[in-house]
Inverse folding.
């Protein structure tokens, strides 16, 4: 028979709370890493945490935390899946152009039955809408496609 449909609309309050705790913990770890950054970056740190609900192979939540400073010259990023039992799996983000991302939407972009991630990618004075393919075997989000892009001065 067909696999049961995945619900992309909501998660339990307990699981949402667990995802928030994961996000807070990752954010604190990223902030601690800024101790080695120059003062100019340490004084201008912005932390951005986003998450999406989707069908990530048994994990309904993908958390993405990015620490950015300056004109995005200094960036750090971590991603994780939170499964229905609250277990966390670290995911590596690999995007050759953008070093930080903001999660926007979960979708199965490549038709493999596992959701991928639509995100806003940012780099030094540039940005774009991108789709990152989730590979559960390698625990990676890899750039699949890019779309509307912008540059700043």
């Amino acid at each position: 028979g067909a696999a049961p449909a995945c619900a992309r609309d909501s998660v339990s309050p307990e699981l949402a709370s667990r995802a928030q705790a994961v996000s807070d913990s990752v954010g604190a770890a990223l902030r601690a890493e800024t101790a080695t950054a120059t003062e100019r970056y340490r004084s201008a740190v912005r932390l951005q945490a986003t998450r999406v609900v989707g069908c990530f192979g048994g994990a309904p939540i993908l958390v993405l935390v990015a620490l950015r400073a300056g004109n995005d010259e200094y960036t750090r990023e971590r991603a994780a899946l939170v499964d229905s039992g609250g277990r966390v799996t670290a995911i590596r983000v690999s995007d050759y152009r953008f070093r930080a991302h903001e999660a926007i939407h979960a979708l199965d972009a490549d038709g493999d039955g596992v959701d991928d991630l639509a995100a806003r990618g940012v780099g030094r004075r540039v940005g774009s809408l991108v789709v990152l393919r989730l590979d559960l075997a390698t625990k990676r989000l890899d750039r699949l496609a890019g779309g509307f892009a912008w540059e700043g001065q």
The chain has a mean pLDDT of 90.
